[in-house]
Structures are given as structure tokens and as C-alpha cells.
Fold this sequence. Notes:
- By secondary structure, the chain is α/β, with parallel strands linked by helices.
- The protein has two domains: 3-226, P-loop containing nucleotide triphosphate hydrolases (Rossmann fold, 3-Layer(aba) Sandwich); 236-316, Alpha-L RNA-binding motif (Alpha-Beta Plaits), CATH 3.30.70.
- It is built from eleven helices and 14 strands.
- The chain has helices at residues 49-56, 78-82, 101-111, 116-129, 145-157, 175-192, 203-209, 227-235, 249-258, 278-288, 303-316; strands spanning 3-16, 21-34, 38-42, 64-69, 72-73, 85-88, 163-167, 195-200, 212-217, 220-226, 238-243, 262-265, 268-272, 293-298.
- The protein has a six-stranded mixed sheet, with helices on both faces.
- A hairpin with a 2-residue loop joins β9 and β10.
- α3 (101-111) packs across α4.
- The two termini are 31 Å apart.
- The mean pLDDT is 87.
- The chain binds adenosine-5'-triphosphate (ATP).
- Residues 14, 16, 23, 25, 43, 45-51 line the site of adenosine-5'-triphosphate.
Amino acid sequence: MDSIIKVDGIRKIYNMRKAKEMFVAVDDVSFEVEKGEILGLLGPNGAGKTTTIKTICGLLVPDKGSVIINGYDSVKKRNKALRHISAVLEGNRNLYWRMTVEENLEYFAGNRGMARKAMKPHIDKLLTQFRLQEKRQELVNKLSRGMQQKLAIAVAMLANTDVILLDEPTLGLDVETGYEVREILRTIAKKEGKTIIISTHDMPVVQDLCERTVIINNGKVIADERVDHLLQLFKTSAYQINLQEPLTEEQQEMLHFEFPIHSWEGLNLQVSLQEEQEIYALMDILKRNHTPIETINRTEVNFEKVFMQLVKEEAAS
Ligand SMILES: Nc1ncnc2c1ncn2[C@@H]1O[C@H](COP(=O)(O)OP(=O)(O)OP(=O)(O)O)[C@@H](O)[C@H]1O
């Protein structure tokens, strides 16, 4: 694998001074990111996504483990490693709200050592790419949340780094702007060969945009898979069964024991199986207890269902 980022067994402990306690936010997290890949870092609230992103971009130093960026250790060779990375951590809060769109881009370009003449075509290209040309003279505080978010990503693109880290890039955006941001990110990755790591709760972002996902729960990696593979895996195992009669208590107990990932509402039973053949064992349990089955269907799977199930499975293990 031609990886540009290698996160190797990182651990991050926060010292809670007031409570005089330590909190392990991320523990033994490892994954790699290939050049040109879009990776979705997914997890419930407080799972450790932002901590992981901040550790990758050098804002936090891991207590254990390492982050290697393009061959350079992010702590030992900090400057060389971080040269390859730009990040949008708090979206619109990275911007100067009392400056215009263009002034923000010029300011940050200048900050990165770009000469005034050289920055002009670069800024024009970004304004076109992010469809912000008409807003170039607008103050940032007059822009919509979506436009501010687009500008924050455009500012990060100024550095023209190989890797872009985005923490919740579609948070608070309406469906249309969320879609537009996704399209822009897809273009950046595909046409410009950028590597993108996105931390998100937004399942359509993962399903639609990311090739691979690393799912973090309680500070640990619980899945590291190609998104299409995960969807396929769950597609073959999720069933919806309509019963003619409700489940007896005995059946409920048996099901709970044999198939931990299931739920039911009235006559509708949803179940996820480890292997396809298990459907016969399930039918057997229902038959033995004289519960006639009306229909059995494979459930349509979206990424949200996959995610919920993986987190549930992990909690049950
Ligand atoms: N500076 C800090 N001091 C103490 N605890 C912290 C600090 N920052 C984060 N935490 C805790 O570490 C855990 C992981 O936080 P983190 O922000 O990385 O999670 P997250 O997955 O990004 O969550 P969310 O999706 O809610 O943003 C949480 O329990 C959080 O409360």
C-alpha cells in the first residue's frame, strides 16, 4: 500500500485538572491512508475523532504511538511532516469575519509566504472552483453558513498540500450545500490527487464520498473497511421478516440468545445475521414455536444502518 499517512498505535490522554483525573480519549488507534484516498473517520459523539484529527495535524502530541506523514514522524520531524498537511478544524471559525472573502484568501496566502502577483491566479481559481466569485467582495459575516464553510476549505487549499483534514465539513449545512461541498471535495481528490480525511457524523458523506471508513468508538478502532465492502457485507445479512403472529416470550429469549442483533415491532422482525445460512436456523426457531412467517425480505442497507449495527455489535461484545 502506498500510504501517505500512517497512524500507528496512538494514545491520547487528557488530564482533567479540576477532577484530578486522566481520561483516555484515544487508545491504540492505527490506520493508514493511501495517496489520493478519501477516508471517512466516523464515530458517535465523544468517540475520539477530533482528537485523532488534531493528533494527525500536530496540534496534539500523542502520549504513545506515532503519526508518520509522507515518511516523516509528526513529532520528531514536525516541520517536514506538517508541510504536507492542511486542516479545516472549526470551519467558519478559521476565518476573519470582518474581512471580505477575497481579503481572507489574500491574507492567508500572504501568511503562507505567497507573493502578491502569484496569489492572484491561485485565488481566482479557488473562487471559481468553490463557486464564490460573486461573493468575493462580501464580508464573511454576511455569508451563509455553507459559503463560509466553502471559504474555509478554499483557505485550506491555498497551501496546496497533499493532504487535507476536515473536521465535520458538512455540519449545519442544508442538503443542497452539503451536496455541493461533497462534489467539490470529490473533484479535489480525483482531479488534483489530494488525500482527504474527513471526520463526520454525516452518513451520506461517507456513503457517497469516502472510499474507506475508519470507525472509532470509545477511543478505539472498531472497523477499517472499504465503504462498498461494508455495504455489501451488510446487504447479504439484513432481513426483515413479517410474522403472522407476535413472538412468544420463549421465542424472544431464543432469538436474543442466537441473534443478538435484532429488533422487532409488532409483527415486524428485523434481524442481522453473521452468515446467510443462519436464516434457516431463524426460520426453524419460528417454526418450532408455531409462528407462521408471512414474508421474508432482504433489507435495503444504507450506511447509517451499517454504522449503527457495528457500534451495537461492539457494545454487545
Ligand atoms: N481538552 C480536553 N480535555 C478533556 N477531555 C477532552 C478534551 N477534549 C476532548 N475530550 C474528551 O475526549 C473524548 C473524545 O473527544 P473528541 O472531541 O475527540 O470526540 P469526537 O469523536 O470528535 O466527538 P464529537 O463527534 O462529539 O465531536 C470525549 O469524551 C471528550 O469529552
